[in-house]
C-alpha cells in the first residue's frame, strides 16, 4: 500500500473502520445532461442506492417502477420486482456497449449497469482501493483554484467494473478525495473530470455528499458542460 493511499484511508475513517462495514445506503438525486443523452431521464433520480463493500454489488430502488429495483454485478444486471422475481436480466452487460458513443441511448438494463458500477465506485472509495488486484501509484502534484493536490493513479483489474481501467485521484491537504479523472469507456471513452465536495462524517467514515462531473479538455481542465450531478442524503452504514 502506498503512503498516499494510507493517508487517504486514515483521513476518511481508517482502514479498520471501513473493513467493519458491509453496506452503505443513501438517497440520491441526480442531474446533468447525460440522462437526456441516454434517454434515461428520471429513472435513477430520487432513488435509494445500496452498495456492498466486500464484493461489487449495487441496487437502485425504485427502478423503472415503484415496486421494482435493479441488481448489479459485473457479470449480470437485472430488474426485479419487490419479491425478487426477475423481470429482465442481461448477462455479460459490458459487451452490450460495443460501438457506443456518448450520445448512444441506453436500455434500462444498460442504465442499471452504469448506475450500479458508478455508485459502487463512488460510495466504496477509498476502501475499494485496497481490494485484491487494485494497484495504486503516487504521481506528481496538481495545482487548481489556489490549492495543490496530491495525485494517485489507480489501475483496476478486469474483475472490477468501473469507468476505465486507469483513473487518477486528487487528494487535498486534509487527505480528502476531491477529484477523479477517467474515461467513460462504455460511452465512447468520453473524458471526464469528477469533483467531490460537502464531505460528511457518517458512522465513523467520511463520505462526500455532492458530486459534479464535467467534460474534461485535453489539458486536463473541466469545461462548462456538466455531465452528471449527484446529491446524497439520508446515508446509512450497515
CATH topology: outer membrane lipoprotein receptor (LolB), chain A
- How many strand elements? 13
Strand content: over 45%
- What is the H level of CATH, i.e. the homologous superfamily? Lipoprotein localisation LolA/LolB/LppX
Give the strand order of the largest sheet, numbering strands 1, 2, ... along the chain.
Answer: 3-2-1-13-12-11-10-9-8-7
Instruction: Please give the CATH architecture.
Output: Clam
Global geometry: globular
- The helix-strand sequence is HHEHEEEEEHEEEEEEE
What is the alpha-carbon Rg in Å? Answer: 17 Å
Low-confidence stretches: none
Structural class by SSE content: mainly beta
Largest sheet: 10 strands, antiparallel
The CATH top-level class label: Mainly Beta
What distance lies between the first and last C-alpha atoms, to the nearest angstrom?
26 Å
Helix content: 10-25%
Averaged pLDDT, please?
Answer: 97
Number of domains: 1
Helix tally? 4
Task: Summarize the structure in words.
With 238 residues, this protein is mainly beta. The protein has a single domain (3-237), classed as Lipoprotein localisation LolA/LolB/LppX (outer membrane lipoprotein receptor (LolB), chain A), CATH 2.50.20.10. It has helices at 3-11, 15-20, 34-37, 108-123; strands spanning 23-31, 47-52, 58-61, 68-73, 76-81, 86-91, 135-144, 147-155, 166-171, 177-184, 190-202, 205-216, 222-237. The chain has a 10-stranded antiparallel β-sheet with strand order 3-2-1-13-12-11-10-9-8-7, covered by helices on one side. A 3-stranded antiparallel β-sheet has the order 4-5-6, with helices on one face. It is globular. The model has no long low-confidence stretch (mean pLDDT 97).
